[in-house]
Amino acid sequence: MPLSFFDFLGQLSGDPALSSTVLLTLAVLLVNGWTDAPNAIAGAVVTGALPFRPAVVLAAVCNFLGVLCVTSVDATVAETVYSIAAFGGGSRAALTALCSAMGAIVLWAALAWFFGIPTSESHALVAGISGAAVALEGSFSCIRWDCWARVGLGLILSAAAGAWAGRTASRILCPVKASPHTFRRAQLPAAAAAAFLHGAQDGQKFLGVFLLGAALAQGRGDEQTFLIPLWLMVLCALFMALGTLMGGRRIIDTVGREMVSLGPREGLAADLGSIACLLGATVLGLPVSTTHTRTCALLGVGSAGEDRPNWWVAGRIALAWALTFPGCMAIGFWMAKLSLASLS
Question: Is the pTM of this model over 0.70?
Fold first, then answer.
């Protein structure tokens, strides 16, 4: 039976650690919508298919629908995050560690936004949770390596498939004789679909965190029948949409202007390439990074055109991606260590 809204409120009122975890998870959802979702509309904004504000509203609405619609059908991505690591040591300590993991993600994402780098909150989430669980348990045996393997597979596929799909879509559209206006018009549904799939992927991951927190508050970290209540889907969707409405222009400028040069044809190709990859991953239940998929699709399009990508900018982004796993794992570990020490 799904967790009811009033039961969840009752848990919050009696457990400050769970309340803190929920607030931080909502903050991560805001940051995700703020820093990650702009990737979906970068092409449409840069090519002039949509002004910035209407594009942000479109992304917010489609993010909301993506969380709501796809999670109702298949919650495999949420299940992977829910079971990524085991939390023991009692309810209070486990929730304190989980709260530290969420704090690590907010800190990492805010730093990335400050430097205009589209980092992945998906991978920050996995790393932060794992680091906090290791701090709690005292060893790496608490980590579910089969779930990590799914995340690693998603990382490789999202980057490689995104670049290949972007390049392929660019070559397919190259001989198409159409006006720039036509390509811009076609970008509107493509940007909407990309934002929808972003919500479908990233919204699910944080649903898993909410359910994990509720389970730990009840003194269990085992895998139960995995049912996601409708009210929780709506809550996550609303906060991600609200985050998207906050903007994210720095990210758009980095990936759509500094890294590659986009015309309407190239913008549409990047949209179509990333849509194909994200749709396939969502159907298969792979927790891929929408940031990696989208950015690599833009790189694939750029490498297929006459104006080559700015590889210095791309290298800076890749370095941030490489540092996400060890960086967030370390921050989650030490924040959890400090928080747990204050309990004793």
Answer: yes
